């Protein structure tokens, strides 16, 4: 291994963003943040690390195993690199922006770091872009973040979008209604998470035959939203579960009205990744990709006063970037030595990328004895530098 | 201390970027990166951390005491959070972009973290924006990065700019010419760094009376560039030192021609912060601020093959942000419940920030029994949400 090859080795899951991808990513992030700002979501910028016992407490505990930790010589306390920004934004809402008018709309974009990648996503550093809507619990609020994400993704050129709605509170509400003992709920959850109808049916002696039948029916009530809602309505759900179903239906109707072309599906018993959510959840997909583009849902912020109703979304920039159409080609022009500064500046304001010749030379250079020779040499240099044009006698000449 | 107050406590030197500053910072960074791109500087995005022995080796050793370090469970090796991005960009140039055509122009923007703030800058997390020009050693290259920085800063509204040029290689070249022993150079350096003419004079028995006289004259040859160049020319410098002076003069002349309104000063013996530079250095100021806006200079990249000639610049976003004119006021409009989605979307595409009412209500809400009542309530809500307008019967009504 040469010294260079060794230097090129980055830790697992870390990478160098190179041209043109790094610029494409940054442009895409800024366009999403601009779209969020147009919906009133004001940007916040939480720090890269915080005290471990603040960042990883409360709802942050689920993130504790994902965070790099290290000692702070300044305070003697342990610090943690943020594995997620959602909780930082909720912290800002409940502390520094405690007295800002509600509903509070916040957007954010930044880098997060996790101690371990997954098989599916070996990366350990991610670009996270998201938005949180804090202090309002209405179905219109759930719908707003979904519609904003859809409009924003479509705006940057990600097409064929779909959203999959979830209601992780439906099964717990049903269990409460039916007074299913805590002791049975864990096994029920496992069976539902595995989408295992037989295992749900097998629980009938513990949770009652009726409950097992209804839960088995919920398990298969997935797919297009109308099919899900028809199936749930057919179940004649008890009181608390019916309220959860109604909420899902109301949010789905507002979203459908706001985005008539959007494909809406639902999986009313889906729970994985949504363990701490308290209402409608959602995941975005594109038929062109297959992979998830982002997700989010309703939750409560933690704080001493009981917290606030909130909903929010996170977009996965790595997946979204693979979906983006290629950027328009940049006009790139080579400027021979001696090109007037004003001409160069004007070209830049007209949208050209200017590449100045820095090797010296020009009219008085021995290499350039005739204009043919100059043109030839300039064209070669321009081509070498990846330019589409070069500048000659006040004109952009195409190569 | 309440729980909330405790949660609000961030580690020393870390802070939450709040609205509207966080958005202003991001916009400013992107405008600078767009300006750099127009000069052909392609964006790269190095990772937040690397292996300690790669990030902090070679020229990175000077940064070693500034970096947070922690163990990587994946490799068992030590990692370091980047205290600076310049060396990462030089690494990318000499590894992943080794075969890209030269000169190689790269730009970057990102967050850096240092273990300890200074008295002047207590922050430990900074936004760094910079550009590197690699593989070319001409005076035109030195001038390009200076002129690009000036044009880019002026483009985002930072006015009254000045640049202070340095030539940290001038004194070492003179010492070589005069065969001043290494043993004396350290004391000479200290005297020059302290701008202590008497101490330079006092070295005359060790370095020779002529050398002491010339170095003393260099020490006072600071100020407007013409004054510096006149003073240096009057010194009749020996061969190597004369080449360094000529280089400084050539770069200054190209910069002055490219930016006739720019105030150019020079301090030919300045060395502090430029210990590893190998040619013309520069620091940007604004007469409106006093504080330094950024700096850079010529250096050599490290690599197994002897490295490459390079020059680069770093801008200090915290100082630059304090100089920025306030952003234009955003038109922010409150949309009562029931506002058509298409109307809302159209307003957003017209540059409005739309704030939807999520509290329900609307024409059929018992609170809104007459249009007067609706207007009054809507106006109150709009004001509460910081809006300048609200939407009524298809029109934007100013509050």
From TrEMBL, chains A, B:
It comes from the Bacteria. One of its GO terms (molecular function) is histidine-tRNA ligase activity. Residues 29-336 form the Aminoacyl-transfer RNA synthetases class-II family profile domain. SUPFAM superfamilies: Class II aaRS and biotin synthetases. It is found in: Cytoplasm. Homodimer. Heteromultimer composed of HisG and HisZ subunits. Belongs to the class-II aminoacyl-tRNA synthetase family. HisZ subfamily. HAMAP family: HisZ. PANTHER family: HISTIDINE--TRNA LIGASE, MITOCHONDRIAL-RELATED (PTHR43707:SF1), HISTIDYL-TRNA SYNTHETASE (PTHR43707). This is ATP phosphoribosyltransferase regulatory subunit. The gene is hisZ.
